[in-house]
Write a structure and sequence with these properties.
about 70 residues, mainly alpha, 3 helices
Length: about 70
């Protein structure tokens, strides 16, 4: 998986996942819950790409950016 392919997929899947959350969990979406969802739905391969820092860190940044959670950084 190339990083340039993973980013749009993670961003899109984050929005898809977020749309399935109950209202009470939308205020602070969980990166770890999203990662679990990716694995459970056979999307875990999108977290397997080369990165200077780490694929997990980059994907979490995209997740936060997509869901407006950058204030946590």
């Amino acid at each position: 998986m190339k990083k340039s392919e993973a980013e749009p997929a993670i961003r899109s899947l984050a929005t898809t996942w977020f749309d399935t959350l109950p209202a009470g969990k939308r205020e602070h979406p969980s990166w770890y819950a999203f990662k679990d969802w990716l694995s459970a739905n056979n999307y875990g391969h999108y977290l397997n790409f080369r990165s200077r820092i780490s694929a997990d860190y980059d994907a979490e940044m995209w997740f936060d950016d997509e869901l407006g959670q950058n204030w946590r950084r």
